[in-house]
Amino acid sequence: MIVMGTDMRASGVKRSVRRIVIPMFFLPAILCHGTANAGADDTVATVGRFIITKQDLLDSYEFGPAFVKRLPHPLRRHLNYMVNERLLALEAERLRLDTTVFVRDRVAALEEDLAVGELYREEILSRVHVSDAELDTALQKARMRVRLRWLFATDRSRAAALAELARRGRFDSLFLAQPDSLGDRSLETTVLGLELSVPEFALAIRTLRVKEISPPLEGPDGFYIVRIEQIWQNPLLTESDAARLRAETLSALKAARAEALASAFAEEKMRSAAPVIKAEGYNIVRAYLADRGLSHDRRLSWNIPSTFMTEAGPVPITSSEQFLHRPLVQFGSHVFTVSDYLRWFDIRQPQLKRYSLSAFNTSIRQTIWKMVRDKLLSEEAYARGLHQRHSLRHQATTWEAKILYLAARRHLMRSIVVTDSVLQEQYRKRYTREGNTNKSISSFEEVRDQLEAEEYLRQEQARLLDLLQELRRRHPPRLNEPLLRELSATIRADPGAIELKVYKPGGTFPRVAFPTIDERWQLLSH
User: Fold this and answer.
1) Burial letters 39-77, b for 16+ CB under 10 A, else e
2) What does the pLDDT look like over 248-276, one tens digit per residue?
3) Using CA atoms, how far apart are residues 521 and 526, in angstroms rounded to an integer?
């Protein structure tokens, strides 16, 4: 089942043979199993203070890079890379990289997100129920498929003009003429999928006949003129297909109901807090984000200032720290400053809309409200002590190890220096191999970038291998061989394995669902 995102214009589902990306809210079963409490019987490996449980290994392997699944003894190889990452995490602590802003902010953000996840399970999932009658009705809709195409306009008058032309028989030519790729303006899904993900659009087009043109439908970013291309029902299902469809439909209903309850819970928190965005702080934030994400010409055309007037005269906003401590949002005794927001933004990197000034302004305000909402939810979770739960502490430590690993790897990469003299020597060796009489040999300037990339990779691999050997002597990993053999007996190499990424788009910190291994270990897999 493919469910369309709220923004229809950006809802194109991109898939390839090699990689599938799945939002985590489509996998409620994964959400529920979690990580069990680590005990002596399910610990697969111990690396310094880091414990790898049976569930850690299986989750990391299942949703990890496909390259390792194609290797002999894949589960053991995958565990070896997990051990490598924790060894590098210990090295990061030795280098005191755990005290850097990069690590501290991200570890704190992930812990908050895990705590809010606990709040979600305790406050929301416990209240989600689906009756048999509701499930039967939804199953009928899940078997009905629909294919849509649409035209898009950012303003109402243009949308009305497009709708009129489309009704006169020009829909196809208008569809082909619009600048977005065709896949971004078409969708095939189920009737249930459409109702669950964009109910306002499903309601607006439910009376349309095939090939009939809808009136302009207002969305979060503009107006849509929709045409239903085809509606059909799946043929008779086998018993196993029917059981799978029933399970998927029940999960989708529960996820949608939980999302509605969670939104209502968060909205009530916001109403009670009654936060207020300060105009000056907002203008400063907008100037910072415009400086980072907009061209100079667009900033001028949208009249977004790059300086603010002070008693000492005009001061550049982004080069002066005096603006960072101005209040941005205030409610009760809470004050969020410009600096608080920019740190929140830098960690999460939400996407801002840039196709118009009003869309840019609105998306900035939306991210500010999201920051406030996230903070209110995390404060509630911490007040209930959810962050102290044993299972959460283990998950938090697992994510901390991943972030420390990334910091250590980045530290190693920054220490690599590739000089011109080294590149010239590499070029001379290649020139000699190809022969002095070959007139078609590329000049040094033409191949310099390629030589630099190859030399950088060679040095990185050599340094990484040397460092890992030293770290294994310093922190010998302890493996639970009987458990590892038991798990490995059920997992064989899969030459046809594809990439599968499970992404968690909601919560306070959008991220991949599980901290699996880095794809760059593929460079050391041979």
Assistant:
1) eeebbbbbbbebbbbbbbbbbbbebbbbbbbbbeebbbb
2) 899 889 888 888 888 889 999 999 999 99
3) 10
320 is written with which tokens?
């002066």
The answer to whether 352 touches 364, Cβ cutoff 8 Å, is: yes
Token pair 């490995």: residue: 488
Query: Tokens 């299902």 label which residue?
Result: 237
| Confidence class for position 472, pLDDT limits 50, 70, 90 | very high
- Whether the pLDDT of residue 488 is over 70: the answer is yes
Q: Could you tell me the two tokens for 296?
A: 């100079």
- Catalogue the E-assigned strands of 207-359: 217-218, 223-233, 276-277, 307-310, 313-316, 327-331, 334-337
Query: Which of 473, 311, 379 shows the shortest CA–CA distance to 116?
Result: 379
Give 3-state DSSP helix, strand, coil % of the chain, rounded to 5: 60, 15, 25
The DSSP element (H or E) to which 295 belongs, if any, is none
Enter the tokens of residue 483. Answer: 């458990």
If DSSP codes are grouped into helix, strand and coil, which group holds residue 159?
Answer: helix
CB-CB neighbours of 386 under 10 Å:
21
Q: Where are the beta strands (DSSP E) in 7-132?
A: 19-23, 43-47, 50-53
- What the block records as the tokens of 370 is 């999201």
- What's the average model confidence in pLDDT over 4-29? 35
Distance of CA 286 to the CA centre of its chain: 24
Question: Would you say the pTM of this structure is higher than 0.85?
Answer: no
Q: Are the beta carbons of 511 and 504 closer than 8 angstroms? A: yes
CB 61 within 8 A of CB 75: yes
Q: What is the signed CA dihedral for 339, 343, 349, 353, rounded to 10 degrees?
A: -10
